[in-house]
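Treating backbone geometry as a discrete language has practical consequences that deserve illustration. In the encoding step, the backbone of a single protein was reduced to a row of integers, each denoting a local shape. The amino acid sequence and the backbone structure tokens for this protein are reproduced below.
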Amino acid sequence: MHGRPPEMAPETTRERPAMRRLLALKRLLGATPRPIEFQILGRVLLHAALVGAAAGLLGSLFFAGVEAVQRIGLESLTGYVPLRAAGEGILGERSRPAVFRPWLLLFFPAAGALLAGAISTWLAPETLGGGSDAIIDAFHQHRGLVRKRVSVTKAVVSILTLGSGGSGGREGPTMQMGGAIGSLVGQVLRVTDRERRILLVAGTAAGMAAVFRTPLGAALLAVEILHRDDFETDALIPAVLASVVSYSTFIAFFGERTLFAHAQTYPFVPEHLPLYAILAVVVSIVASAFLASMRSVQKITAGLRVPGWCKPGLGGLALGLVATPVIVLIGPRLGQPGQGLGILGGGYGAAQLAIAGAEWFPLGWRGAELLALLGVVKIVATCFTVGTGGSAGDFGPSLVIGGLFGGAFGRAAQLLLHDPRIDPGAFALVGMGTFYGGLAHVPIASLVMTCELAGSYDLLVPLMFAEGIAFVALRNRSLYHAQVATKRESPAHRDELIFDVLTGVRVGDVLVRDRPYATFTMRTPAHEVIEKAAAVAWQDVFPVVGDDGKVVGLVLSDVLRMMAANPDGSSLTIAHDLMVPPVSVNDTDSLQRALEVILEHGLREIVVLGPDGRIVGFLDEAEITRVYHSTTARTK
């Protein structure tokens, strides 16, 4: 019976429960979403550019669709006159205003929201609400998968909601539309889960960049919004490229201009930093109130015993009942009959008012009071629209609310301190970025985006200061349910973290030491090999050592069982005849390396060698499994 024994049959491996776990772990690690490798980066960027072009085109059509429906429906039928930001309109001003019909304005938002709610419920219920939460959830929980119908459905229902006066932004819907396009491209091209998630993020950035004209801020927002305290760094470059392509596509149709007009410069005054600190606290309080109101409306809406498709319509009706009296009472007193003052729609005109004022805008305390009043009404209007499931974004209204209260604060500070260096527009812009940045936990993105919106980085220092305060103040509040704290809490990165743990742990940290074990020389008789092996119950792999004490081969327990079953054939057999080539790892190797060796050779345990090449212990499959299970338990 001289010569090497045959290799173990595959059935032997399948009989071991621990080995089955390790095989599953190997499959898991084989699909591990490592950081994007250089060789596939070009492919991902090409796909991201395709996503950006598609998102830019759809975003342009969506932007024009909202404007057209608002002009044909809301403005022509009800006589509503929208208050616009300097860079917002694309259809120009009406030659003559229509007759204002407040009785029709009462019900017009409800009609659009009701139709949109029916379409959403029928085709894609995930398009109800703002859309940002749905994209965040798709990234973390659904492998970046979004149904193909979502992009078009979201565009249609958002056009109906916003075009009929729903209080919400265009950016939330375009984020979901862009993310859906990214997911669709990934599904069509059959990329990996990791690449599809990156394309979803790139599409989200592209959707935002298209209609908001903030390519860098949109890219940063897309990688920052997924986590409360982390960034999706692998997706940053694809997101930047998709944003640039989408932005370029959009401005090819509508031109290059910033959304808001503002003062020529905002000089930095160090003495005003305490004022910005107080502003950050005030804005944080208002943001908390806004979030509490939104959650209350969502809770009440969920408890209504009515069909789900009609709940957005009820929100639209409540919006009309709140907004119409305000428009009727305030507009004529300001010489602006039928003027919505930013209550309906995105409300960017109201933020523009806080930044730069207007000829008809009242000075002094009346102006500050008007801005604060509009901020309160905008909170209520947005809660009625988005909180009931209306397909409108919460990003735009958040900026507007922050801008209104920031402008009111700046005017009040100017009146109280009599400091001519105080520019209320600067406080409006800082309030704008601080409100959303703190509430959505995206301080870097909102900072850059505010500067891009204004076309100026003069306010960079006050924005950084206020954003930092709001980030701490709003630490335990988040605008988005689906947002997770860090990558560790995200199922999208769970396998990656397990890989990192196995790679980062040394074999020497977990191997079995200081236990007596059996070794043989090459000349040890087979019967003695069997006797010594039987005396060591825990050992499964038996090293054969040379005269220098180094391992020259292994005797496996499967061979010993076979020899024990046929004792007559072992009289002339020695350990040299039973052994297989040596298999070992060093105590400085990683668990990942040890796992690969164990699975490659079908072992239950492996010999561990020290720096001098001699045995220092054994690593059992159970030890690797224990590390694996403890890691998954912490990341669940």
